[in-house]
Amino acid sequence: MTLSAHRRLLVVLWGILGVLLVALTAAVTALLWNGRSDALAQGEARVKRFAAGAEVGMNRALLSLDVLLASTEEMLHADTSGRASFDAVGVSGLLRGAARQNLMLRYVALLDETGALLAASVPREGLRSVSLPTGFLAAAMSQAVPTLIVSQPQMSALSSERVLYVARPLRLDDGTPLLAVAQVPVEALVSVLLQGQGVPEIEVTFERTQGQLLLGVDASQGAAEPVRLAAPALHEEAARANLADAWLAPARLSGEPATVFARPLLYQDLWVTASLPQALALTGWRDGAVTVLAGAVLLGVSLILAGVFATLYSRRMHHARQVEARSKALLDQVVDAMVSGFMLLDARFCIAQRNQRFEEMFPWLQGTLAVGLPFRRVFETMVHYHLPGAHAQDKRDWVRARMARQRNPKGTVELRLPDGHIVQVTERATPDGGLVIICHDVTDLRQAAAEIEHLAFYDQLTGLPNRRMLLDQLGKACAGAERAGTLGAVLFIDLDNFKTLNDTLGHETGDLFLKQVARRLVASVRAGDLVARLGGDEFVVVLASLPADAVQAALQARSVAQKILHLLARPYQIAGQTHHGSCSVGAALFGQVPQTAAEVLKQADIAMYQVKTNRGNSVCFFDPAMQVAINRRARLEADLQAALDADQFLLHLQPQFSQGGTMMGAEALIRWQHPERGLVPPAQFIGVAEDGELIVPMGRWVLRTACQLLARWQGQEGLSTLSLSVNVSARQFRQPDFVDLVLQQLQHTGAPAHRLELELTESLVLEDVQDSIAKMHQLRTKGVRFALDDFGTGYSSLAYLTRLPLHRLKIDQSFVHHLGERHIDDVVVQTILGMARSLELEVVAEGVETQAQRDFLAQHGCDMYQGYLFARPMPVDEFEALCTAPAVPLP
Question: For residue 272, what are the β-bridge partners?
Fold first, then answer.
């Protein structure tokens, strides 16, 4: 189909759709217009009926009121005949009887021409006077022809409701003019207007000819207030001309366009109107119109969508024909532009199509390929290049094998060409029995894969196998040794002090150093052994095929390790400078029992760290006892963490006494109440906690508990004057928030700061003197005291002692223990006591266990004592009982 024919078809299609849409629009418009006319006609009929009913109801109500008031005159004539005076009591009784005949009335009253109350249907004590609207009395009395007159609504002083007054003038037999007045609640007339039924759409009014509203009812709002004219004045001629001829008349209450019917009542100047706003009259029609329009729109959209679908289908078919026409021309361009070689064989395995790239990959085929050539001829040409110098029979077998594979293609095959390139050949059968051959040069891909594999399994810096390859090869070596009944060994090598070299001379120098170490390690082992780099300064040597005898295997492994120690200890020439180094070697045998590579490596690592503990540059073989100790330590760390979470720690207090035997304070010592092992002494777990991070939360617990005790002791006799010493670890003291933590605990618990004493060691203070001094001064200004613990065991210096805000020194128990036995200890203790006196510091002697030790310390001026001679560490409750008990003389 040509382009012009296609366009003509679309024009006809959319012309038919246009006609259908126009017809649909016309039909819907006519339907809606007829429905609107019917809705307006029904609204007019409803308003007419309602207005007629309201007219009848109001005429009946007003007529009944008029008859009642007119009958009052006859009753008066009958009652006053033969009497010379007006009997108010008798007339009130008559009025009461007449009022009971009409339920709309509140009361009926007789007024004279001045408005004074003469008689009423209600008691006089309840109704002293009748408050008529201004001018109503005069208007009623001045009528030439007596008739009923209605007042404007107003509030009743008697019942506090809106009421209307209806009145009729009367005359007594002697010609005295009177006025009969009845009070009618507005609500009573509302029910008359609505005729006992609720019509929410229609507005009903009771008004005068000039439009003055007496009563208006809008069902949605209730009775309207007569604060304005209802609408333009109603004239009798206009009412007779029927205002509902048009829907543009304003509604009497809302003023909206509406149909309005006005009915005059029997009494002059009184009208009843009914208004139906056009918007309300069309509510039902509007809902139906929405439904009709929705259906029409849906039908129109369906027609348009059908046209769009037909257009799209037509265009797709036209486009498909164009694509089909262009596809053959594009196919040749695509095939020639392919990076891969392409060839298509027909069902007879003859060449149907090829591209230039195929001939470029196999240059010896240029000039021989042609459409229709059997592909067997291609193989017969290629075999001379793939099997140069082969026997003729071998070449024929190769050709037959390749032809057989083409008849049953199974994926891809790779060919290595004489020029070194690697070509991946993919063969796929076609539905018509032919074959598609795609040749892709994967030389770069294979080289990249080899590089990726090298990066994945070899260390980039040294070229040695990395951790991944080490674990793989070590696992194979473990399995092989177990099968063969031989042994092997792993040497875990860690360079000593490499971090110092790396930090001082730079990473480039460190990298050169590692490369030389790698070369020396490779030179130190046999060709079948494995040298790998784990990372950083750690290397591993795997020695395989060692003797089955464990002693001989260990000797050979030690020999290799000693050789490595010797080679790595030789000087290194790096960037024209000479460097020296050493290493720590951990060794572990494998093959004796089933083990994984990770387990063997872990054992060698443990042995290496044992060497590190002994200052390195040595060899150590793994001992199972090392593993037991490590496992025990790991369990202890886990139990400590659980103890923190389960609150298993206790605080014991060891008293401190003055020379005179008075208890001055105590040292807070942590204890661990293990649920299974009982009370664990601190020597078994403090070291583990200090090596890890657990010492910090433990120290916080001790500090918090000590502050709580000091706060509790305030005001208690025997306890309030005591101080409490708390040991602070180096790791806890170096926390950035240590000062804030101490102050927060003091503030939170309310403990007196001057009763808290923090004990620091000399090594802790000297680690960072400036930071130590700053923190101590911050706390000292708040009242916290400091003691230097284990004094004499570190690098004691008067220079820093004079700068530290110390309160006392504590002589280490190692000196106190040998007092009187070793002269050197006596001299050290005397020196410390003399120096403390010079610096005006108190001295506490720890570990006083004998009377001789105490006498010696007292003789040389020691201030305070702490030890088993006086009291052992005890639980808090025992300590408090001891302090509050009667004093017992101390030794």
Answer: 206, 263
Tokens of 741: 């933590």
User: What CA–CA distances, in Å, run from 736 to 21, 573, 732, 780?
Assistant: 83, 43, 9, 17
Q: Which residue has the tokens 């082969």?
A: 390
Q: Cα dihedral angle (384, 389, 392, 394), rounded to 10 degrees?
A: -90
Please check the confidence at residue 220 and state whether its pLDDT lies above 60: no
Residue with tokens 């392919």: 338
Which residues, other chains included, contact 815 with Cβ-Cβ below 8 Å and sequence gap of 6+?
792, 825, 828, 829, 832
Q: Are 883 and 660 in contact (CB under 8 A)?
A: no
First to last CA, the chain: 127
pLDDT band per the 50, 70, 90 thresholds, residue 198 = low
- pLDDT of residue 225 exceeding 70, the answer is no
Q: Where are the alpha helices (DSSP H) in 338-353?
A: none
- Look up residue 32 and give its two tokens: 């809606």
| Least confident residue range of 3-7, 230-234, 721-725 | 230-234
SS3 463: coil
Nearest Cα to 256, choosing from 247, 264, 265? 247
Q: Are the C-beta atoms of 722 and 755 separated by less than 8 Å?
A: yes
Q: What is the pLDDT of residues 554-570, one digit of tens each?
A: 888 888 998 999 999 99
Encoding tokens for residue 35?
């429905």
Let me know: does 557 contact 491? Beta carbons within 8 Å.
yes
Neighbours of 486 (CB within 10 A): 17
Residue 718 burial class via C-beta count within 10 angstroms: exposed 0-12, middle 13-18, buried 19 and up: middle
Tens digits of residue pLDDT in 76-92: 776 655 555 667 777 88
What tokens appear for 169 in the block? 């003038």
What letter represents residue 797's amino acid? Answer: S
Q: Rounded to whole angstroms, how far apart are CA atoms 558 and 567?
A: 14
pLDDT recorded at residue 236? 47
pLDDT tens-digit readout, 742-780: 999 999 999 999 999 999 887 777 777 888 888 889 989
Burial of 389 (0-12, 13-18, 19+ CB in 10 A): exposed
Measured CA to CA, the distance from residue 730 to residue 762 in angstroms comes to 10
The residue type found at 758 is L
- Per-residue pLDDT of 286-323, as tens digits, reads 888 888 888 889 988 888 888 888 888 888 887 777 77
CA angle centred on 302, ends 296 and 306, rounded to 5°: 150
Beta bridge partners of 184: 164
Q: How many other C-beta atoms can be found within 10 angstroms of the C-beta atom of residue 33?
A: 10
Tokens of 126: 């309840």
Percent of the chain's residues with pLDDT above 90: 14
Phi, psi (deg, nearest 5) at residue 104? -75, -20
Largest CA-CA distance found in the chain, in angstroms, rounded: 170
CB–CB of 78/98 below 8 Å? Answer: no
Q: Which of 137-141, 226-230, 436-440, 602-606 has the lowest mean pLDDT?
A: 226-230
Residue 281 token pair: 């009259």
Q: What is the 3-state secondary structure (H, E, C) of 533-581?
A: EEECCEEEEEEEEECCCHHHHHHHHHHHHHHHHHHHCCCEEECCEEECC
Region of poorest pLDDT, from 120-124, 141-145, 662-666, 793-797? 793-797
CA neighbours within 13 Å on the CB side: how many for 254?
22
Other C-beta atoms lying within 10 Å of the C-beta of residue 98: 19
d(CA 297, CA 395): 79
Residue pointed to by tokens 């009915």: 263
Minimal CA–CA distance to 596: which of 421, 739, 474, 512?
Answer: 474
Please state the three-class secondary structure of 824-842 as a single string: HHHHHHHHHHHHHHHCCCE
